[in-house]
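JOB MANIFEST
job_type = single_chain_structure
chain_count = 1
residues = 177
[input]
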Amino acid sequence: SLISVALSQVGTKDNGNNKVKYNTEYYGREVSGSSYAWCCAFVWWCFKHAGLSQYFYGGSKTAHCETLRNFHKNKGETITSNYKAGDILFFNWSSNKGKAQHVGIAIEDQSGNSIKTVEGNTSGSGSQSYGGHVMRKTRNMSCIVGGFRPGKATPNERQCYDYFTKTMKLNCAAACG
């Protein structure tokens, strides 16, 4: 459902100066200006409209890519390879490869050195982080600085699941419950 919601937004563009429906819903009012980059607000909006808010930022909001990345990193949910459709990917195009400058949603599994995404606040040419459009993109793996898989089990959750299924011999539904 996350991918369907994201794809339904392809072609949306801001009205200039970051004035866009994703920011309006995120902030609860119309905003504009350079302080309101909206790639992360777009991803938040997609999670919300797919009924998956709890997987974005623990059910809370952030419009900052690096904050979102660190939240999932601190929960042990970071992925760095073998990206799949539905993964949230963080991008960086500068020499400071440690920081997330942009975020998008993978819409297909990784294929070789590239992956297809839907991203907000990007463009066909020019700025890839502040472009004003929701677009399908094909990204080279070299610009990805990590990601997270919504709903991926944390190490503690995996340990509990393994205990319930292997030691206690419960079926999957019982272990998940």
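[summary]
The radius of gyration is 17 Å.
The chain has a mean pLDDT of 90.
exit_status = 0
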